[in-house]
Amino acid sequence: MPDDKSISVVNLRELSKPADTLIKKVSSAIGGIFEPWQIKRVAKAQAEASLIRAKAEIEITDLHRRAMHRFVEEEAKRQENMESITRRALPQLEDGSDPSKMEDDWVTNYFDKSRIISDTDMQELWARVLAGEANSPGSYSKRTVNFLASLDKADANLFTSLCGFGWLIAGNIRLLIFDADNAMYDDRGINFDCLNHLDDIGLVSHEHIAGFLDTKLPKRITVQYHGSILHIEFNNEADNELPLGQVILTKTGEQLAGICGAKPVDGFQDYVIEQWKTRNLVIS
Questions:
Q1: Measured between alpha carbons, how far is 258 from 129 in angstroms, rounded to an integer?
Q2: Tens digit of pLDDT for each residue in 141-183?
Q3: Model pTM score
Q4: Distance of CA 113 to CAs 28, 51, 144, 271, Å?
């Protein structure tokens, strides 16, 4: 993806229809901050105008003046954050998407939470959420947005590492953690303590004793690991079970797993195949 600085205001003169629609939607929901031909930096100007009016009405003390200048700088920074996240989202919009279907309340809540995010990596994550919601309204709940606002970068990076062990099974992302003490996981920072931590903050459910299963599966299913497709054949014609290991995603975790930027783990596909073969499954 282009660096934030490379997506200039000039480039916004020739927007795709979904990008133009998204900027109009954002403008409508949060008060006209964005326009199709230009993303205006208005917060500082508006705050300075307020200072001028205040000077005409009352005697401004040094304390008042310092407070107003602090307000000016804070609002300018928040404005910059919102613009940066929006610019990062624009290239991710799908040609057939219709951002006008996004709920105004969702957009307002999203920017209320995201405007304080200045870290570029976290802005990229926020941009993926905005683009994902614009491409398919209803994909991300307000609860997930609110959770994301409380997520620090270290936990986000830990979750991304964990999602490197995620497979697509029966249409769902499944984290296949069979033994957190195994070097396959531990060498990549995934262990019992970090799984408990991610459980505590609400991204996963960790059950290290009984584990989890996918149930009522047909005789043959197709699974994927980062684009690599495998076929699994069970012994029974129906009502089969597939062991998933010790961790499953929560609803919030599911919504964030697909956009966290996880990368495949070397050797993990072969490791999982061996785990399944010990359960007499036929893998091809």
A1: 10
A2: 999 999 999 999 999 999 999 999 999 998 899 999 999 999 9
A3: 0.80
A4: 17, 26, 11, 40
Nearest Cα residue to 120 out of 265, 261, 274: 261
Which residues are paired to 282 by β-bridges? 233
32 or 36: which leads in pLDDT: 32
Bridge partners for 249 per DSSP? 204
In whole angstroms, what is the distance from residue 229 CA to residue 210 CA?
A: 28
Which amino acid, residue 120?
Answer: T
**Tens of pLDDT along 67-119?**
777 777 777 788 888 889 999 999 999 999 999 999 999 999 999 999 999 99
Which amino acid is residue 100, in one-letter code?
Answer: S
Residue written as token pair 């596909």: 269
Amino acid at 221: I
List CB contacts of 112: < 8 A, sequence separation 6 or more. Answer: none
DSSP 159-170: HHHHHTTEEEET
CA 179 to chain centre: 27
The partner residues of 172 in beta bridges, in order of sequence, read 169
> For residues 260 and 215, is the Cβ–Cβ distance under 8 A?
no
Written as six digits, the tokens of 217 are 């599966």
The residue with tokens 């953690």 is: 177
Q: Which two tokens stand for residue 41?
A: 């930096």
| Spatial separation of the C-alpha atoms in residues 177 and 282, rounded to whole Å | 20
Nearest to 228 by CA among 255, 190, 256, 266: 266
